[in-house]
Write a structure and sequence with these properties.
Strand content: 5-15%
Oligomer: single chain
Number of helices: 11
Number of strands: 5
Order of helices and strands: HHHHHHHEHHEEHEHE
Shape: rod-shaped
Structural class: alpha+beta
Largest sheet: 5 strands, mixed
Amino acid sequence: MNKHLDNFDVFPWNENFETGIQQVDDQHKTLVLMLNQLTDALVHDNPVELSRIFDELAVYAKYHFDSEEAIWASKFGDDRWLALHCETHESFLPKVLELKAEQGDKPLRVILEHVVKFLIRWLAFHIIDSDKRMAHVIHYMDAGCDFETAKLRADEEMSGSARVLIDTVLNMYDGLSSRTLELMRERVERKKAEAQLREANRLLEEQAVTDQLTGLFNRRHFDEVFEQELRRAKREQRVLSYIMLDIDHFKKLNDHYGHLQGDIALKKVGEILIEICRRPGDYAFRLGGEEFSVLVADQGEQCGVEFAERIRAAIESSGIPNIQSPVSDKMTTSIGLLSKIPEADCSMDRYLKIADTRLYAAKQQGRNCVVAHD
């Protein structure tokens, strides 16, 4: 049963509800559909949708009653059966309002659940007992019976064993609607729990590969991504650029301004790298301490140099103070870059070694610069 729960209706339509009068049956199906929509909004605890559907249901019920009464009136005239039928229609909305009022200050969900169950039983009973009785009269008259004979035959058809069957069906619908509401609510709660679990797993996976201070990828994820992009660059013969950078004289910044300001500086570098590395093939990492790196796929060699220079300039322009640095009174960075189409035997270690050598060269050349060649 749970396997098909997505297709459950709290009020399933059945051919036994059909009166044989197309217009009446179509309108009954619409009412049943709206009841099921109301139940769905109830189960999903959607008060805006509940209010909207409930209002539409009230308007459509009035339209249906008027249409149906016109059909009965064409055959029944001023007969008492029609008068009683119209009285039932007139009592419908007041009964619903009375039922809501009886629930007092209970939560809206509880109130509407009582109303929905009432609507299901009322509509099922009204169709099976009253509408079908009226329809039988019309069918017998169309078959050649006079009005009184048609009424007698309709009464006979709706009494005895048929009456027992009607009561049985209504009791079954009562139980079915209550159980289906419970199952639908359980399903919604289960889906919520599954969504929460997926989100928790996503966060755990994200935390496993993310540096918590800067929001960049961490060293653990670095090795996996680098090997993946290196294989792809070899296979497709595309340029893979690797940028290695250090914050210049970060220890002086940390010692002079304190660890809090040091963390602010690291976070700022993270923000800059995230802002610049926006393409799907751009990856930014914090390898540890003040050491960062960037992997850029599918860009030309000159683009790699321009990319590294954008990073250097953005960090220098960030305005983070480092007055103790002999390079500048603002935070700067030194960058080593290797940008090339990797050969078949080129390894990640070779990329790292060359970039590290060029980073060292950038520091030897006075820092706050990019070295892209030996």
